[in-house]
């Protein structure tokens, strides 16, 4: 009895093979079953009864049925081909159809028949009509034949379509049967049931696919045998497919992970390790390979690297094995051939023996300077032992040296007669050492003085070098030391005064030569220590020379008188001529000591005392003292002629003044107490004190003439009005200095600053070229500059004339110069003491200035009373903002600022009001258009704070009379409606409301100005009324972008029909990646048109369903990409259309031909969203870190005595921008003007979810509205945007705009 066939765990039943007559209904039903492989097998095998399952082999039966299906498919294919040939033949034999239609021919035949029977005609004419009628009947028969032929073609096409549909069904059934059969075959191969087979895919880096496969697929085959699975590798998708039972797949995947998770690692051992590994027959390397067989180890000798490949754990273990090799190297220089021979030996036998003994590598290399180096490489203990042995051997045979210090006089004696004395000394020492009998050969002992020692009198001691072997050096040094000590007892030292040494030497050394002749063979030497040394072997000779020296000293006594350095010139110059002659008559010579502190008097004791008295009396009456002064104060000292401060102190104290311009010093000569009093008076006059003060400030050059007045009349008037005040103006620097009583000086300063601020001045720009003249004449730049700065500008052929308040004139001139030359020059004015503090701070630590210069790209200089910034205007503005942050830490509340809108420049910069505040508070107040603020400065923080409070109150009142109405960028179209055609609307508004209306287009702002707050509010109400009505007559609504072409229609027919039906005007705005429609017209028509558009969109979306994904508003520009590049790429790759709904914050994928394509498109979008969300999280973390850094800087500044940021100065947090778009969601309205919301409603029985309109559009105007953002053109002409952080760094922004403008 035969054994039953194996059970596959399948439900078997009868399988309906498609019959040529019955069709393939059963198989068609099977093909619509579950899509999984196991379900396919179960469905096919369900066709078999239990008896059939036991009586035949399933795989064989399935193969037979596959053959039946294949035969049926081939028969149907042949039938399709035959019918296609028949159809082609029918098309070729299609009869020709007459040109006229059947109805036309019938009508013509009736007309001819009517003519023939209704009237009489000649026979020939009747025959002609009959021929025409017969021709028409023939054409009608041709029409009938053509119609019958066409019906035959239609029937044949229907038969072909039916046959092709049957062929399509059979192809699907054959494919499914083949799939089932392969599944069953695989189950038999893997010894499991088809129901147990599962398929798993794992990702694998492309570069590891070959490694996973192994040589000729060895790795894959090994895993297949071990785990009973089937493995295939998809090299295109970089995936590995595993089929088998669940447990077998899991086991196989674990095995594959050893390969798919493999990593490549390169280690670069140092040259010592590499040399050691490749030497000694690579034994260490082979040991590591044997202990880590699962790791592929490749050694690249040409680049000294080792490459490891394998599982990360195994690779790390191999890497640790390499790194754990305690290979080290030591080098030692070998000096001379003697040491080299000791190490190498004859023919290298010593080197080889040592290397083998300690298992190391030893190498001796010769350098470029005839020096050799010994290098030992190996394991650390072995290297230590080998080096110790070498060192011991060389140490025992080393020649060393030592030295003893010898008096310089003895050196001269030893080196005399060509060194005969030192040679004898050297021989005697060598004989003593050789006489010990310890060595058979006398050691070589060498004595010599260091060659770099200079000749005699250079030093009191010289170094005598002793060279000998290490074993004898101590003995030799002891003998030399004893001999030198004996010779030094023959030196006599005589101490004398330093002033007497030149006397002992004599003119040209004559006296010294006489002394040497007195003692034949004696050596005499002077030293820097004010001594004279005498060397002689005869004691009597030494004493004789000593007595001669004392006799010379007795004849040349010296006296001293203390003198100040400033008085030396007086004594030795013309004023001291009489004193010098008196001393000479007394027989004394006078001179000044080398340190310029004493007058040296040489002569007898009695005459020295008389001369000292004469000199002391002269010095008491001619005391000299001095002071330095600023070069700018030099004219002040002479100011007033006979009444100048110098003349005054000279008369009052009887002193003599000497003004030295080249050194900027003043010397005063006279009695000491009077000189001191005179200097004090001059210093008080220059610098203040004792109730007097000095203030300085800079005057604009164009206002200088008005300050001085004709012939100095204004200066004289001020000095008269403010008693005691002295005014001086330095013409070069335009600096005004006022000196005198404190109260009057301050009043005088306030008066002058008020006059400067309120006086209209004139300045000009000369040397205007014809080209620039024509350029300015043909543009509105001059008009715009005049309007912006409130200065009057007149253009002539050669120059530009500017007239107005000094601050306005300076700003206008800077703007014009920037237009002409490309360089903008701006200032931050400071007080004198503030300038010094800023200058000192920048000199102590220039990193702040350097960083601001680098990030802003501007030139920054510190001048008197101002910080000057020059460069491109955008860079200058950026630098000014950063400088204000830094100055806030340096000056604290002495420098404050109040932010104002540009529309408030004129009312807030009223010169009379600002001058009044300045007089009241004593602070300086000025408008800075570059930073859109009013600057307040004072050396007293309380005064600047008081001025700031007054300005804040003024700003509140000004805002009431000057209202700013700002619109969103999307509402720019409202400005043209407010202005009206030819300005009619805005003129009517001004007449009706008594207000002034100014339009700032770049900021989408309307400024309403009036005399009172009520008038301004009435003007605003009028504007609101116009805007409200405009919004009702112009709305915007969204349409999915993929629906836009259908909505617009061919040639615009669709949108034109909507416009015509609803009596409105419709147009698409911002065609690039925008589905926005603008609807304008009457209010009721606009509302009707909007509802019609919404209904159309709902109907279109119902018939064009898609797959949606939520998206953060900030990420929409990233998905769109630069110029729409990213979204176009996704659409091209998937064949889908991506619709962006900014109101609902979704992206929907439509069309594409299949659901998989839409899913793929959504998947790509989701990947971009996930990556960008990670970047946003990083930027948020970086921003928090920057905030902490800023707080740290503030705390450190406070600890170091720095001040907090000035009140009124806005301290903006730093922004860190990585690749992407800056988050500006908090700056935009949640619902833009004009957008039509679609509420929850039902049309045509379909419901539409409420659309959430949250629009966050990043535009260029919005970006540049941030004062910290600037832009410039790069080399390719593209605009590049930068963010200037208050902490002093600048970041390049990579932005994508939602709409261009």
From TrEMBL:
Coiled coil: 153-180
Domain K Homology: start-end pairs: 196-265, 319-395, 488-554, 555-620, 691-757, 957-1028, 1031-1098, 1103-1170
Transmembrane segments: none
SUPFAM superfamilies cross-referenced by the UniProt entry: Eukaryotic type KH-domain (KH-domain type I)
Protein name: K Homology domain-containing protein
InterPro entries linked to this entry: KH_dom, KH_dom_type_1, KH_dom_type_1_sf
Keywords: Coiled coil, Repeat, RNA-binding
GO MF assignments: RNA binding
Keyword hit for Heme: no
Basic and acidic residues composition-biased segments: 1180-1190
PROSITE patterns listed in its UniProt record: KH_TYPE_1
Native source species: Thalassiosira oceanica (Marine diatom)
Region (Disordered): 1-39, 84-121, 1180-1252
Highest taxon in the source lineage: Eukaryota
Compositional bias annotation for Polar residues: 29-39
